[in-house]
Amino acid sequence: MGKALVYPKSQKNTVRRKGDRGTYDLQAIHNIINATPVLHVSFNSSDPDDPFPTTLPMVGTMGSYTYPSADLSEPLDCYLHGYVSSGIMKQARASPEKGLPITVAATKVDGLVLSLTPNSHSYNYRSAVLFGFGSLVEDPEEKVWAMRLVTNSVVAGRWEQTRTPPDGAEMVSTTILKVKVVNGSGKIRTGGPGDEKKDTEREDVTSRVWTGVVPLWEAVGYPIAGGAGRLKELPDHVLNYQKKTNDSNEEYAKQAAMSEELYS
Q1: Around Cβ 81, how many Cβ atoms within 10 Å?
Q2: b or e along 161-184 (b: 16 or more beta carbons within 10 Å of the residue's beta carbon)?
């Protein structure tokens, strides 16, 4: 087995506070990105009179059009789905050479860590940040490939169970932004409370305070039919998505709570 690929440490992506929680492993970081339903994408305005960065909630996923069989442990691009006239797409269109500088952030909360003192309370979590340059996908074949990738990242197999390919109007109105990732990092906490010795040795405190972890996970409800579709039977790909997502999220949150790693 080869050595795991990592993003190189730089001033921008190095985790400094609680550095032992930091990870630069491509697979770990890409997993967090793909497990997060809504990504937060930040960029600076091209308007010199606007001093504030813009942050948008967007749907996106990791992938490689050049090497479609590449897995999450390999270098990948981040594909973001958007509307043709949105501000981020306009700025990316106006930055054709290197692309629009972009930051992509993702966070999953896996548990509430309840400690002896308010100061040492925490979360179990997984977070990831990517830094890269975003460019519009102009090639029609890559664009359809990316639209399928993003659709199936929401519910696996959904693209194949709908009316496809997109028609001309849909191809025009939908824009795909490909972020060529330059760097990234992640930060992960697991385990129970990590109180200080000054509190753990106090009988008057430990005898009256409950400590532990409340596991927390996203749950997918039972699908409710609606809209114009007349298929009565719930398709397997939707049921499988519900079960797999719920089982995976619950299992991870509980394992994270029982981890032997203890952090404050």
Answers
A1: 19
A2: eeeeeeeeeeeeebbbbbbebbbb
8 A C-beta contact, residue 24 and residue 72: no
Q: List, for residues 134-177, the tens digit of each pLDDT value.
A: 999 999 999 999 999 999 999 999 999 999 999 999 999 999 99
Contact 79, 39 (CB under 8 A): no
| 97 Cβ contact partners less than 8 Å away, ≥ 6 residues apart | none
Give the model confidence (pLDDT) of 37-88 as tens digits. 999 999 999 899 999 999 999 999 999 999 999 999 999 999 999 999 999 9
Query: How far is it, in rounded angstroms, from Cα 38 to Cα 60?
Result: 7
Q: Report CA Rg, the chain.
A: 21
Report residue 108: phi and psi, to 5°.
-120, 130
What is the Cα–Cα distance from 202 to 235, expressed in whole angstroms? Answer: 57
d(CA 215, CA 196): 22
- What six digits make up the tokens of 111? 């548990």
Q: What is the total residue count of the chain?
A: 264
**Residue 50 corresponds to which tokens in the numbers above?**
């606007």
Question: Which string of DSSP letters, residue by residue, matches 50-90?
Answer: --SPEEEEEEEEEE-SSSTT--TTS--EEEEEEETTSHHHH
Task: Give the dihedral of Cα atoms 182, 49, 137, 168; nearest 10 deg.
Answer: 160
Could you tell me which of 64, 62, 66 has the C-alpha nearest to residue 30? 62
Classify burial at 50, counting beta carbons within 10 Å of its beta carbon; exposed 0-12, middle 13-18, buried 19 or more: exposed
